């Protein structure tokens, strides 16, 4: 979270950085700012609110070197003064991350006469670099970073230096190598169409970026080389292609994500080797990725005799302190940068477990930690709420489970190809507007299911609450009668997913429990008997018959569309839900 961008070159820095920030806005959108160097002096514009608030000021910021920031507040509420960049003396910087020891550093800086203009931890870094600056910005930055604890991606401008100094530790920085100028940014989408090549900085790296060159240094200030990689960011992923929101566009891209994930699987040889030797598989992730991990656990246990477990990445470190021979940690993460997931992977790697990443970000931190990578190939996801990346993760984990079981992977890939086509026409014809109207007026919406349908229910609930702000919760259908039923009345809606014929009767009795208490029920099902039983009494959403393992791809599409439509009815911005950001790089 927090998007940062820098540019040094022949072009108009303010305009380039502004456009980069617009593309990074999914990382945070409570305030934004840009600093540009002109004639050796730095000028700043910063404001509370979205990046577009800066457009009026860009014309006033002439110059060829600039940095910018779009914020997701951690320390200090969103305000003009807490917006980045922060300055001290000749130094102006933007920061993504958290400086954990900032209270102590701030106290020391105040004791030596420092005055602070904001409540942020980041301003401490500006003061520190200023204090350590003695004519050499790289030296000052290296010295300052030795005093920082926590995580940081810093882009620093210094009056007298016609470029940007960069530091990276546990927050991502990509360097873009352009023709006539160079770039730095939190994420590749900011660089789409700007440069053919990129370098990914490693933890402890520093860089000096000018119009003509990029120099990278290690933590002792020694020059190092980092591989030049192809810039994979595509401008088309930033194009709404006629859709009103990225969320709707990306839900419609789920079929392609499933297909591409199945196609890409043949190149995951190393990952397959690891999975084939697994004795125990621990799956982990956060939020939506955790829900995919929960589904993956069920796939593995249904297909093979390998023991599987799924834990929240943020909790995993408290769950177990060791790994055994044959343990494989599967880290599921769209961004590949989520701090809790990356740290869990690092920890299990240090215990001796093999680490496998399931991600759609090939240049991300998790891919550098992992022993093997499976591409959940959904392409860049711009909407803060995960949609197509979840579908891709389910497809990837379905194939992983098949490998762990020593099964026929080719056959499973074919199933996914067929499923991708069915999903495309299913999304085109599925209309959830009536149910969304109902949800928008409900005091709470409960999502219920058993086994795989329970995992789907958890994700449906997360989606609805995060984009519509309607209270929702996901439960196993069998749990309803053990407490939550007390909350069911005429103002509550319950969304059931019933796709396993062996469990249908039991889930159906939970639907009856809701209906007989005056609650409204919707049933997502591909089972004819269930449709007949509840037709006319509950809203029936017919799923195509595809078997219980792939049904979650269809119920996910329904629940994503439901969340989207409910958000739109309530006037929310589904692409940028309040208080949230994509790529959560703080623990
Ligand atoms: C919800 C959502 C989040 C992410 C979570 C993990 O729609 O997007 O819950 O799934 O923050 O992010 P990644 O997958 O990037 O590790």
Question: Any key phrases for this structure?
Answer:
binds fructose -6-phosphate, Glutamine Phosphoribosylpyrophosphate, subunit 1, domain 1, Rossmann fold, 19 helices, seven-stranded antiparallel beta sheet, 3 domains, globular, alpha/beta
SSE blueprint and pairings:
Layout (H helix, E strand, L loop, with lengths): L2 E7 L3 H12 L6 E8 L2 E8 L6 H4 L6 E7 L14 E3 L2 E9 L2 H10 L10 H11 L4 H10 L3 E9 L2 E9 L4 E4 L3 E5 L11 E4 L5 E4 L4 E4 L5 E2 L4 E2 L15 H7 L1 H11 L4 H8 L3 E6 L1 H17 L3 E6 H7 L7 E6 L6 H13 L2 E6 L5 H5 L2 E4 L12 H17 L4 H21 L3 H8 L3 E6 L2 H17 L3 E5 L15 E7 L5 H12 L4 E6 L2 H7 L4 E4 L8 H19 L18
Parallel strand pairs: 16-17, 16-18, 18-19, 19-20, 21-22, 21-23, 23-24, 24-25
Antiparallel strand pairs: 1-4, 1-10, 2-3, 2-4, 5-6, 6-7, 7-8, 8-12, 9-10, 9-11, 11-15, 12-13, 13-14
Helix pairs in contact: 3-4, 4-5, 7-13, 7-14, 9-13, 9-16, 10-11, 13-14, 13-19, 15-19, 16-19
The chain binds fructose -6-phosphate.
The site of fructose -6-phosphate has 16 residues, from helix 9 and helix 16.
């Amino acid at each position: 979270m927090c998007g940062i961008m820098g540019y040094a070159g022949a072009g108009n820095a303010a305009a380039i950085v502004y456009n980069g920030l617009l593309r990074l806005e999914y990382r945070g959108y409570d305030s934004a700012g840009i600093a540009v160097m002109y004639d050796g002096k730095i000028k700043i514009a910063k404001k509370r609110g979205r990046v577009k608030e800066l457009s009026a000021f860009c014309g006033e910021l002439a110059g060829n070197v600039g940095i910018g920031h779009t914020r997701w507040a951690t320390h200090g509420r969103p305000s003009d003064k807490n917006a980045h960049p922060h300055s001290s003396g000749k130094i102006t910087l933007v920061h993504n991350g958290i400086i954990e020891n900032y209270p102590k550093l701030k106290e020391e800086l105040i004791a030596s006469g420092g005055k602070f203009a904001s409540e942020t931890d980041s301003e401490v870094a500006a003061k520190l670099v200023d204090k350590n600056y003695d004519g050499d910005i790289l030296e000052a930055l290296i010295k300052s970073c030795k005093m920082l604890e926590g995580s940081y991606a810093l882009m620093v401008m210094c009056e007298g230096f016609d470029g940007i100094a960069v530091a990276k530790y546990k927050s991502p920085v990509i360097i873009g190598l352009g023709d006539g100028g160079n770039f730095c940014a939190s994420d590749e989408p900011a660089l789409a169409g700007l440069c053919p090549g990129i370098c990914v900085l490693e933890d402890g790296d520093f860089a000096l970026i000018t119009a003509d060159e990029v120099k990278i240094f290690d933590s002792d200030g020694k020059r190092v080389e980092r591989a030049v990689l192809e810039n994979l960011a595509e401008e088309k992923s930033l194009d709404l292609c006629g859709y009103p929101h990225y969320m709707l566009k990306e839900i419609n891209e789920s079929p392609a994500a499933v297909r591409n994930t199945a196609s890409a699987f043949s190149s995951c040889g190393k990952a397959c080797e690891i999975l084939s030797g697994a004795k125990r598989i621990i799956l982990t992730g956060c939020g939506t990725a955790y829900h995919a991990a929960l589904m993956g656990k069920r796939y593995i246990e249904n297909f093979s005799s390998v023991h599987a477990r799924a834990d929240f990445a943020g909790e995993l470190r408290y769950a177990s302190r060791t790994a055994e021979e044959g343990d494989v940690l599967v880290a599921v993460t769209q961004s590949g940068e989520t701090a809790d997931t990356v740290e869990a992977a690092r920890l299990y790697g240090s215990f001796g477990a093999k680490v496998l990443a399931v991600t759609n970000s090939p240049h991300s931190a998790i891919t550098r930690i992992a022993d093997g990578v499976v591409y959940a190939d959904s392409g860049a996801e711009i909407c803060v709420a995960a949609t197509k990346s979840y579908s891709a993760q389910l497809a990837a984990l379905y194939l992983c489970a098949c490998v762990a079981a020593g099964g026929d992977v080719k056959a499973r890939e074919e199933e996914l190809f067929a499923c991708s086509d069915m999903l495309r026409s299913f999304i085109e014809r599925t209309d959830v507007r009536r149910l969304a109207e109902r949800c928008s007026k409900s005091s709470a919406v409960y999502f219920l299911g058993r086994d795989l349908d329970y995992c789907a229910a958890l994700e449906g609930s997360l989606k609805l609450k995060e984009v519509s702000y309607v209270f929702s919760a996901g439960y196993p259908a069998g749990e309803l009668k053990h407490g939550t039923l007390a909350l069911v009345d005429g103002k509550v809606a319950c969304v059931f997913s019933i796709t396993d014929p062996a469990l249908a009767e039991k889930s159906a009795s939970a639907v009856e429990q809701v209906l007989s208490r005056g609650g409204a029920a919707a049933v997502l099902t591909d089972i004819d008997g269930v449709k007949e039983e509840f037709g006319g009494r509950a809203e029936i959403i017919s799923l195509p018959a595809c078997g219980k393992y792939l049904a979650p791809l269809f119920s996910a599409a329904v629940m994503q569309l439901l969340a989207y439509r409910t958000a739109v009815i309530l006037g929310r911005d589904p692409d940028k839900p309040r208080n949230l950001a994509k790529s959560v790089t703080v623990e």
